[in-house]
Amino acid sequence: MMNYNNYNMAIIETYVVKLVGWPQGVKFISPSNIRTVSEIRKLCDALKAWTCYRAALIPVEVKLHTAELYACCSAGQVVWQPCKKCSDAGVARKCKAPPTTGQAHKEIRRPSMKVKKNSSAQHHEAPKSVEFIESSDEEEDEGK
Fold first, then answer.
1. 63 in Cβ contact with 71 (< 8 Å)
2. What is the pLDDT of residue 102?
3. Domain count of the chain?
């Protein structure tokens, strides 16, 4: 998944690839957040024409990029934007109620998949057959 907010750390540093040829005039954000049709068309045309593509970095480029990130971090610039916190962060969750006395002795559980598979296999077994079957036609011929 592409992480546009933390592109330098999440994509370039992790996967050692970068996007080359992002169209001029199109803000580097997720395509789902681009609001104008003309910008979407520019990006789509660049991707179709392969003028915008992923390129693997060579080790020298990786070291240069890491040094640039370190310099930015030392200068006090924000290199990594933290993810948005969940709306219920810090809220205590309710524990499930303990079983009542009547349920304490009986375990109420769903059968496991193995049990389900075995029980369904028992219902669908083919009937066993006898090795030799005598024909009723032969018995009628003997009686005549």
1. no
2. 55
3. 1
